[in-house]
Design a protein that fits this description.
Blueprint: H1 3-15, H2 21-29, H3 36-51, H4 53-63, H5 73-88, H6 94-108, H7 113-127, H8 139-147, H9 151-161, H10 163-172, E1 179-183, H11 190-199, E2 204-206, E3 214-216, H12 226-229, E4 233-235, H13 238-250, E5 254-257, H14 264-272, E6 278-283, H15 286-299, E7 306-308, E8 320-326, H16 341-344, H17 347-365, E9 368-378, H18 387-396, E10 400-403, E11 412-413, E12 416-419, H19 421-424, E13 429-436
Helix pairs in contact: 1-2, 1-3, 1-5, 3-5, 4-5, 4-8, 5-6, 5-7, 6-7, 8-9, 9-10, 13-14
């Protein structure tokens, strides 16, 4: 196994729907035959191709007589890998990039594509095609190709935000996401954690959005570190930490995290829980709950019952002081982190997920005690899944009202928490705190 083979398996597998790219990458990187330098290169190749796929495809499509659509997923991604090395990795000789792509074509392509791969990449080198300006008349398509996002999403964001804001949001989706950690308050302090992580070479620095959070400057090896194994911190973006803090502030004697995997917000609630209170986690699959249980154990948090249940059909005889519904969503706020998502999601997914969210919210309404709170949150940026979803809910549940969260003005839009990658430097996130009348 080598880095390029591993990267090709991830990219082709993701495009074919075998699994998410991060899951496939983790599987490939666990191969004992990969050296550390190959693991690093495989990771760089996967992230680079996914971030620049729109521009890569534009160049390749014009270099192929029958277009990229005439190739298999394996053949397409092999060419993308080759072109990415030519256009973005100066340290790799052009001859090596071409030769390795030809080797992969021999292994994973049809017989006729071996010569095609060699010819196309050498023609691109001769013309330096990747350096040419984008001669695309349609402004939507040009912006989509330039920033490697789907055209439908580019059009949508321009219509909703205007071209300047949409362009900034597209650019933010291609920036590398920071690794941010939340200290485990039961085991350490921010100051102590920053000191020990610095001594271990991770270069931690204070996060500018969340008090106590740390951004990790050199995250390689973080999850293998003694500090991680000892449960001194939880890896969680600043946006998710803010939502977790809202949940902790609204918690009462009995609380429920309705879609709790992987456990970031649940562990925040449990860490901050008052003596004698109870926090319950629920999710739809045992596999998801196993991950939550693992995180609870690593952080040393006990006394948190976990329930396997469908959030849209959750039925218990108890009423909760707080129900957190951190629902499945289109994830358009985390495109910089989930790099293959932009190429998998389609417009119809937004409507489908909005229907699921409505079912979860309506079920959650019946679980909230009078005087209690329902906290609804997503990691997406679509009105249908965010403010319009809340408007719909309040229209059919007049016993609830939206309350303004205790947050700085820069984190709010109206009565809601709203974070944008291009404005805040965090993942995109939305949250609405809904109080049930007594």
């Amino acid at each position: 196994m080598d880095a390029r083979t591993a990267a090709l398996k991830v990219l082709a597998g993701s495009e074919l729907g075998a699994a998410k790219s991060d899951e496939l990458l983790a599987e490939q990187l666990s191969s004992p035959g990969l050296k550390p330098v190959d693991r690093a290169l495989a990771r760089e190749l996967v992230s680079g191709v996914l971030r620049s796929r729109g521009r890569l495809d534009h160049v390749l499509d014009r270099s192929l007589k029958q277009g990229l659509g005439s190739l298999t997923a394996w053949e397409r991604n092999n060419l993308r890998l080759g072109l990415y090395q030519l256009s973005s990795l100066d340290r790799i000789p052009q001859s090596a990039a071409v030769n390795e792509s030809v080797k992969l074509a021999r292994r994973f392509g049809r017989q006729g594509t071996i010569g095609l791969t060699n010819a196309v990449l050498r023609d691109i080198i001769r013309k330096r095609s990747w350096t040419k300006p984008l001669d695309i008349a349609d402004s939507y398509r040009r912006l989509a190709v330039e920033h490697s996002h789907p055209e439908w999403l580019t059009k949508r964001w321009i219509a909703e935000l205007g071209e300047d804001q949409a362009t900034a949001l597209l650019a933010a989706g291609n920036r590398e996401a920071p690794v941010t950690v939340r200290p485990n308050r039961s085991r350490t302090t921010t100051e102590s954690l920053q000191r020990v992580l610095a001594e271990s070479g991770f270069e931690p620095r204070r996060n500018g959005l969340v008090d106590g959070a740390l951004d990790i400057g050199r995250p390689a090896g973080l999850t293998a570190s003694p500090e991680f194994r000892q449960g001194l911190f939880y890896i969680q973006d600043a946006a998710a930490q803010l939502v977790g803090a809202l949940a902790a502030a609204a918690a009462g004697p009995l609380n429920l995290d309705l879609c709790c995997s992987p456990g970031g917000k649940l562990t925040t609630m449990a860490e901050a829980a008052a003596p004698g209170s109870l926090t319950v986690g629920a999710d739809i699959s045992l596999a998801k709950l196993a991950r939550v249980r693992q995180n609870l154990s690593r952080l040393g948090i006990g006394g948190v019952p976990l329930v396997c249940a469908d959030a849209a059909r959750f039925a218990v005889r108890r009423l909760f002081d707080l129900v957190l519904a951190d629902v499945p969503c289109s994830g358009l706020g985390v495109l910089r982190r989930r790099l293959d998502l932009r190429w998998r999601i389609v417009p119809e997914d937004v409507a489908r997920l909005a229907g699921l969210q409505a079912a979860i919210l309506d079920a959650a309404a019946d679980l909230v005690a009078p005087g209690g709170h329902l906290l609804y949150s997503t990691c997406t940026l679509t009105p249908e899944e965010n403010e319009r979803q809340v408007d719909r809910f309040l229209g059919v549940h007049p016993e609830f009202q939206a309350i303004v969260p205790d947050l700085p003005d820069r984190f709010r839009q109206g009565p809601y928490l709203y974070l944008w990658p291009h404005r805040h430097g965090a993942d995109g996130a939305f949250a609405a705190c809904l109080a049930k009348r007594r």
